[in-house]
Specification:
The chain has helices at 2-11, 27-33, 54-67, 93-102, 111-119, 140-148, 173-205; strands at 45-48, 71-73, 105-108, 124-127, 155-156. The model has no long low-confidence stretch (mean pLDDT 91). It has a five-stranded parallel β-sheet with strand order 2-1-3-4-5, with helices on both faces. By secondary structure, it is of the alpha/beta class. It is globular and about 65 Å long.
């Protein structure tokens, strides 16, 4: 949304907003790609952090402890391999999807971590990867997604790390319907746009 507004300001032309490409496939399509390991045979809290802010890690472990869940970490950086709960095997796309599909709870500061948590209907707490007071912050995609699907209460900002956050189950029925509507609208726009380009190319070749 913010990107579309910027393009409109720069060009003076309207810019269509479509959903992230990962949302163009539904839950079952992604589930069919994922693979499982023995690690997924018991309940666990999945942690996937692209940032290194320790306050987020501490809060994630606090949430996992309150839920009575062991922590399972997908490492994003070499330093993560020193953390307790690291996934012992190598993680590729199939294992990545399988972990999100099997998690009992998810803690993440990743936009796509949030997307797959939502697609797989997981209870999730989302953290700010970037300092929100920094002008270079890139948190806006997460903010937009949470607002778009009515999940703003799942955000644990840096100012909230010392207070309780919402860790309840999420009622996904309405969210699923909204995703479906936006998916169909986005696919229609992409289809029409490609047809328009194809028509222009054909006319130019004549």
């Amino acid at each position: 949304v913010a990107g579309a507004e910027l393009v409109t300001q720069m060009t003076g032309k309207p810019c269509e907003v479509v959903i992230d490409p990962t949302l163009l496939l539904d839950r079952e399509a992604w589930r069919s790609i994922g693979s499982s390991t023995p690690l997924m045979s018991r309940p666990f809290c999945l942690c996937y952090f692209l940032g290194g802010f320790e306050g987020n890690w501490e809060k994630a472990r606090e949430i996992a402890h309150a839920k009575g869940l062991p922590v399972l970490i997908i490492p994003a950086h070499m330093g993560d391999r020193k953390r307790e709960g690291i996934v012992p095997d190598d993680i590729g796309p199939r294992e990545f999807l399988g972990l999100f599909a099997s998690a009992s709870y998810v803690c993440t500061d990743s936009f796509h971590g949030l997307v797959f948590s939502t697609l797989f209907q997981k209870a999730v707490t989302v953290f700010e990867r970037f300092d929100p007071d920094n002008s270079a912050s890139q948190n806006v995609r997460i903010y937009n997604f949470l607002t778009m699907f009515g999940l703003t209460e799942r955000l644990c900002t840096r100012k909230m790390l010392n207070t309780p956050c919402d860790t309840s189950d999420i009622l996904y029925s309405l969210i699923d319907k909204e995703i479906t509507v936006k998916r169909e609208k986005s696919l229609e726009f992409l289809h029409d746009s490609l047809q328009m380009v194809e028509s222009e190319v054909s006319n130019n070749d004549r």
